[in-house]
Write a structure and sequence with these properties.
about 350 residues; alpha+beta; Aminopeptidase; OB fold (Dihydrolipoamide Acetyltransferase, E2P); four-stranded antiparallel beta sheet; globular
């Protein structure tokens, strides 16, 4: 027998079972005394169930996640919700307004959790978020993108030591699942300390909409909600024909020198060990060309699309898999399926 949901308290608002509310969490003011609010959408089902928190734009310029949440909230299937969905399309409102990944003082909010009530501006904002919103959640999905001019293949980052998170990551059904680094100050580190399953979905590029990344994200969140029994199971003959692949490790390839980068490959490409990835040329033709080669047999899951690069700048992110031949075929199948829907996961 299903149990009736209880009332939920968020930001001085009481949400009753069966209600959907749009809330605004007051944020620390700027020196101009301009008032800013974090938008919160709460869908509180009539029946009890898990509370899923979905966040976007912790980096204010990561726009794919904002669009994913906006599309998610328009899906009629959510009328049958069991449990609670808390969706925040823009966490870093300051960064969003300024098309920036950071707060006005240049601080990365992503590295300030769980924050402090008496700390810096960023730490106070992080503390407010953790106490008022994150504390209510049972499971968290954070939506991010690559940096500006740096695009990522749709993938889920998860703690490989957390079996429940791994199962939810498989349910999400993105092409690739990678192990997440446990870094102090991040929201996923706070989730680990509080034993809450946490998924980080990273796809596309900052300040750009990527249709395939958005569609994969919306479907993935719905898949997780079905896995959590927040929504009825989907009846489909084609359901989950393609499974996610777990990476063995991820490698960052950085530019050995400054200059003009001429890339040889695109996202999703399979490269052999020692294969040529790109060449770096002196823009003034006073020095020779430097070749950048793959350190291992791998798949390109992240790529810098800007031709002008500095020494030490990230050029590629490579993913290594236990069975490389299977993974290469696997990504081609994903590409074919995406193409049928009029989008592409590879570029």
């Amino acid at each position: 027998m299903l149990v009736k949901n209880s009332k939920l308290q968020i930001a001085n608002a009481t949400i009753h079972p069966g209600e959907t509310l749009s809330l605004a969490l007051p944020l620390p003011e700027l020196f101009s005394y301009a008032s800013l609010y974090m938008p919160i959408k709460v869908m509180h089902g009539k029946k009890a169930g898990p509370c899923l928190l979905v966040t976007a734009a912790i980096h204010g310029n990561a726009l794919n996640g904002t669009e994913i949440i906006n599309r998610l909230l328009m899906i009629n299937e959510l009328k049958r919700l069991q449990g609670t969905l808390i969706a925040i399309p823009v966490v870093n409102v300051h960064g969003f307004m300024n098309r920036s990944s950071v707060l006005p003082d240049g601080v990365d909010l992503h590295r300030c959790f769980p924050g402090s009530k008496e700390g810096t501006h960023a730490e106070r904002m992080a503390n407010l978020f953790v106490n008022e919103i994150f504390s209510k959640a049972d499971v968290c999905i954070d939506l991010q993108t690559g940096f500006i001019n740096y695009s990522n293949l749709p993938q889920i980052y998860v703690n490989f030591n957390d079996e429940k998170s791994k199962q939810l990551a498989k349910a999400f059904n993105a092409p690739i699942i990678s192990d997440i680094a446990q870094i102090e100050g991040t929201l996923h580190k706070v989730a680990e300390e509080n034993k809450k399953p946490f998924l980080l979905y990273e796809a596309g590029e900052a300040l750009r909409f990527d249709e395939s990344s958005i569609k994969t994200g919306v479907k993935g969140i719905l898949n997780v909600m079905r896995k959590l029994e927040m929504l009825p199971p989907k009846i489909s003959k084609k359901e989950n024909l393609l499974k996610s692949f777990f990476t063995e490790k991820n490698i960052w390839v950085r530019s050995p020198t400054s200059g003009i980068s001429r890339s040889q490959h695109s996202l999703g490409h399979y490269v052999k060990k020692n294969a040529l990835l790109c060449t770096i040329q002196d823009p003034f033709s006073s020095a020779g060309t430097v070749e950048v080669r793959s350190p291992e047999e791998s798949i390109i899951v992240g790529k810098n699309s800007l031709p002008l690069v500095h020494e030490g700048e990230a050029l590629y992110q490579l993913a290594v898999f236990p069975k490389m031949d299977h993974t290469s075929t696997h990504l081609k199948d994903w590409e074919e399926q995406s193409a049928e829907n009029g989008v592409s996961i590879l570029s």
